[in-house]
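Re: Re: ligand-bound prediction request (bumping)

Still looking for help on this. To restate: I need the protein modeled with iron/sulfur cluster bound, output as structure tokens. Inputs repeated here so nobody has to scroll up.
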Amino acid sequence: MSYYDEILEAKNGQVLFLLGNEAIARGALESGLSTAATYPGTPSSEVGDLFYAVYKKAGMHFEYSVNEKVALEVAFASSSLGLRSMVFMKHVGMNVASDAMMSIAYTGTRGGLVIMTADDPSLHSSQNEQDNRHYADLSHLPLIEPSTPQEAKDFISEAFDISEKYMTPVIFRTTTMISHERGLVQVSPLMEKKKLSNFESGKDVYNSLPQFAFRNKKLLEEKISNIKAQESERFVRVERADENEWGAISSGAGYAYLKDVVSKYGLSISILKIGMTNPLPEKAIINFITEHPRIIIVEELDPYLEEKIRALCELRGVDAIIYGKMNSYFPYDYEFNMDIVRSGVFKSMGKQDPQSFAKGTESLLVAPRTPVLCSGCPHRASFFAVRRALKLAGMSDAKISSDIGCYSLGAYEPYDIGDYMISMGSSIGIASGIPEAASKRTVTFIGDSTFFHSGIPGLINAKLNNAQTTLIILDNRITAMTGQQPNPGSMDPDDLDSKLNIPIENIVKGIGISSVVTVDPYNLGEMLHAVNESFKVDGPSVIISRRECAILRDAKERKAGRHVVYMVDEEKCSGCGKCVEDFACPAISFKGGKASIDPDQCDGCGVCSERYVCPFQAIEVA
Ligand code: SF4
Ligand code: SF4
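Reply:
Sorry for the wait, this slipped through. Here it is.
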């Protein structure tokens, strides 16, 4: 039985050692989940990995949708017919989904609908560290935040119940630490799925025409105020200290660090842990503050709780001395750790910090390493060819716009690909918008999955405006960066010619772009020629650089017994260093004035053996 099958089939009371994301998926299955949809994004991806592995056995619908907005629409439609449904995404995915979410908040739902967002403090794999708790305020939707894998599983079931009871979507927010933390989780039985039911005419109107939205706005306010009265207080836990001088209020990952600091240093601080952070459990908060004159607020990212708690105290005329971010006891930025929380707590209490924050004694110290593209990665060949072509055409200063995916790593030396890299699908719009005066022609890079996600409108716009850009679609046949999920171009990764797959060529030609070629980036000569020709085109020109992800390819080659490695012939190697400086495959290093290939790292792609990389043709199959 596979690992994921074991999670699906675990019996009531069994204890599993799960990632927070796996606990969330199990919790959703226990809640009778019928439909789940997502666009993969770290740190939420493992929820989808589990569903993808078990959805047929679990008798549910699961899909990797084309983007987060579509994923939410799919889950919403299913819930409108009474089925429990879920959509999950990374924090920036919420920006994409929010257009639909803001209207769905008004229409409400029928079957439980949970919208999970996984935020990424410290930007481990993201372009920003936005705090998605603000979406709860913006949409007037309830927000639940777990602090442990066990809570992640249990709270998901609560989220479905609340969603169904109040006919409203519920936002479920984790952060990287909660999603990726592993812990013991006791499972409950799997609930029966709800039955599909049709609209009750006159009652269910999932239509945002102003006349309905006008009415629904009032209903939305009623729902959130009922949830505040009847549900929010259930999600609090008070952990009392011996003395009542100090209290701390926290939620999510902040609580986990706070609890460790309080217990490790034997601090006399009572803790109010909050599980539903919108609407806030005001009664519990006021009671706690009344009992504890000095309050420390521990939360990652924005002072979301702090602002609300300060306002609440003001409104209720409750005197409290509050220590938080707004008076500089804790930092606004980045993920918390033991050092940050200990330092903030000791500073609040006016105590000498027993350990120097600067030394980072309790947080793991890891030497900074620049992320690199894998050995054999086809993107490296594309970057190399484009850089070479730009140089040959005297266009080295052309502006290059890149996008979100593993190819974002092209921004590092020596490729220096990515003067712009803003958000999913933004590369083409930006490249098209660079004024002609800045550069004769721009170059744009976008991955296959990102192209489907939100790159297509940019290309339509580029065509309409005759944008002078060469668009290179890096089609590695998979959504690689988030863990090898399929996308519309490769719905069946084991059969890349499957009828299910949507050819990118058809889309580009359908838009009316006539200059479109498909090239294998491993063939540097062909790639160079294609890029060079594209520079002569008036208007947008598209090169589909198609070669499957090196990890997929490597696995297939090894399975077929075709795996080879390359080596440097020392006799032929002149020591010019071009293979290291210009191509920079991590398998190649420079020792004693000669290049050398580490056979354990070599993927056998053979690109470095081409004369464009090694002018002396000193690299060959070992
Ligand atoms: S063949 Fe050359 S470029 Fe390809 S992985 Fe091996 S060392 Fe790197
Ligand atoms: S490019 Fe060729 S000749 Fe130059 S260092 Fe590398 S292997 Fe040696």
